[in-house]
Design brief:
Elements: H1 2-8, E1 22-33, E2 43-49, E3 63-68, H2 75-93, E4 96-98, E5 101-109, H3 114-120, H4 162-180, H5 186-199, H6 221-244, H7 261-273, H8 276-289, H9 302-319, H10 326-349, H11 356-376, H12 383-403, H13 413-426, H14 434-451, H15 470-473, H16 498-509
Parallel strand pairs: 1-5
Antiparallel strand pairs: 1-2, 2-3, 4-5
Length: 518
């Protein structure tokens, strides 16, 4: 039905990869939890065709095929995913025809976040020793500055082999039968099983729900950039609180001195970065914990990440002070360099159209982002940092060789927009009949109305610039986004600092210069 809908639809942008009388619909299949409410669990699966180009980032070209009031890792969801295998096999081996036009279907991509991807692959969670669904990296060797990812013999980390996945599952099943006979608690038995999987140098516990189709998965850039900026803000927030040295009796945000580093960061966050939800969440967190309790729990959105890309240096400026010690000054510059490299990575890895030169630039930016975290950040390397440093460049090349486009074609941006739309629909439904009513609305709005001649609302999948235009059009601005001290200067006070030059050399060479504080 969707194929006929697109073939009969008169669109400004033609379907990619189609000849005059034949073509193949490239299917992208993915699922995620729906944000229906704090105390509700809901999950949906969406399907889209990569042939529509940039419109894959539009909610109007992502179609609902499954919805349930359950957690995304529940048995119901797993059973549904397994039922997709024979359906996909039948789709791919059959040739269809519509008005003398012959077409086929082929599953090409699995745009999912890391949690859903681990479930589809039958793997342990991302907190396991071997934390990546894309390669055999572990928490013990992820900080190796000389390691590389690829399929060659010289590469330290390699993609998971499907046959090896099956062999590990067979060993795990045999070990589970042995552990089941022991008189231990459930927690102890589970710990033994996860330890056994780690000793196999694997994260595989069950057979992948989609079989060897799991090898088609590529890294999804939307959640990766959001997580990376989330870690950046966490580092800025901790440094701001440390430098503020707030007294113990300062228990509310209203009591924080206006001239403190923490208050200035919050003000810049509100007035210049303009992330209102993050400001409110941070204030609430401080009122509850005084900045000393559990870390701030806030999931960055695409809008938050874009705002940080444009104005993150205003936060860095709030952290800097003339009375800073050498160590404090270096920390501020490290954070500035971190944000700058992260912005470059985000700008390049989220593109739909990309060139080989830009892929080379992406590889350099990702490597420098990884090296900086490994050398200077006390939080060291986490799964997001390692994935950005090694998986993003490799997968970007693969996607370019396969489709001639960038990683933007596998983004979940359209799917996240769809979930926001589904949440609005759910507010006018009953709990028992929620999904039946949502499916009915989806069909009428996305397919039936356009077939009757009604145009869909304009999509928002335009070119989104992650690097502000002012750094290219206005000579008064430095590349980082701050105003230069003087129009005659090449860089701002941060980028032109001699210590920043040493940090840059250290990152490029993979070793800390002796003039810097290790």
């Amino acid at each position: 039905m969707l194929a006929k809908f697109y073939l009969s639809k008169k669109t400004e942008e033609s379907l990619k990869g189609f000849a005059e009388s034949t073509g193949t619909f490239q299917i992208a299949l993915g699922g995620d939890g729906c944000p229906f409410g704090k105390n509700e669990s809901a999950c949906s699966f969406l399907v889209s065709f990569m042939n529509v180009g940039r419109r894959v980032a539009s909610s109007y070209d992502n179609f609902l095929i499954f919805g349930a009031n359950c957690d995304e890792s529940s048995p119901v969801v797993k059973k549904y995913v397994r039922s997709l295998l024979p359906q996909l096999s039948e789709l791919e081996r059959t040739e269809y025809e519509f008005e003398d036009f012959k077409y086929r279907f082929k599953l090409e991509e699995l745009p999912n976040d890391m949690k859903m991807l681990a479930m589809l692959a039958g793997e342990l969670t991302n907190s396991a020793k071997y934390f990546s669904s894309f390669g055999n990296v572990s928490t013990a060797d992820c900080t190796d500055l000389t390691g590389t990812f690829g399929t060659e013999n010289f590469n330290k980390w390699k993609p998971w082999d499907y046959k090896e996945r099956v062999r590990v599952v067979n060993r795990v099943e045999a070990f589970k039968k042995k552990v089941a006979l022991e008189k231990n608690s459930v927690k102890t038995k589970r710990a033994k099983i996860t330890d056994f999987i780690a000793k196999q140098k694997s994260r595989q516990e069950f057979l992948p729900l989609l079989g060897n189709l799991i090898d088609k998965a590529h890294v999804e850039p939307l959640h990766l950039k959001n997580n990376a900026w989330q870690f950046f803000f966490k580092a800025v927030l901790e440094e701001a609180l440390r430098k503020s040295k707030l007294p113990p009796d300062c228990k509310k945000m209203s009591e924080v001195p206006f001239d403190s580093c923490f208050a200035q960061v919050i003000t810049a966050l509100q007035t210049q970065v303009k992330t209102r939800r993050l400001v409110n969440k941070t204030k609430q967190w401080f009122n509850e914990t005084q900045g000393t309790g559990p870390v701030l729990q806030y999931r960055f959105t695409g809008k938050d990440s874009r705002s940080f890309c444009h104005n993150f240096m205003t936060l860095i400026k709030c952290l800097s002070h003339e009375s800073d010690s050498k160590k404090e000054h270096q920390t501020v510059l490290v954070l500035a360099y971190l944000g700058l490299r992260l912005r470059d990575c985000v700008s390049l890895c989220n593109r739909f159209d990309i060139t080989l030169d830009q892929i080379a630039q992406l590889s350099n930016a990702c490597r420098e982002y990884f090296n900086l975290n490994a050398l200077f950040m006390y939080t060291s390397v986490n799964p997001t940092v390692w994935t950005m440093g090694h998986i993003v460049p490799a997968h970007c090349r693969q996607v370019f060789e396969k489709y001639g486009q960038g990683l933007g074609v596998v983004t979940m941006e359209g799917r996240e927009a769809k979930h926001i739309f589904l949440k609005k629909l759910s507010e006018n439904t009953t709990y028992q009949n929620r999904w039946a009513e949502i499916f009915r609305h989806e069909f009428i709005m996305l397919i039936w109305l356009p077939q009757q001649g009604f145009q869909q609302p304009g999509t928002k999948c335009k070119n989104e610039a992650y690097i502000p235009s002012r750094v290219f059009s206005d000579p008064l601005y430095c590349y980082c986004g701050l105003l230069k001290t003087s129009p005659d200067d090449d860089k701002c006070m941060f980028c032109g600092d001699p210590v920043m030059t040493l940090i840059d050399k250290s990152v490029k060479e993979g070793k800390v210069y002796p003039q810097l504080i290790n």
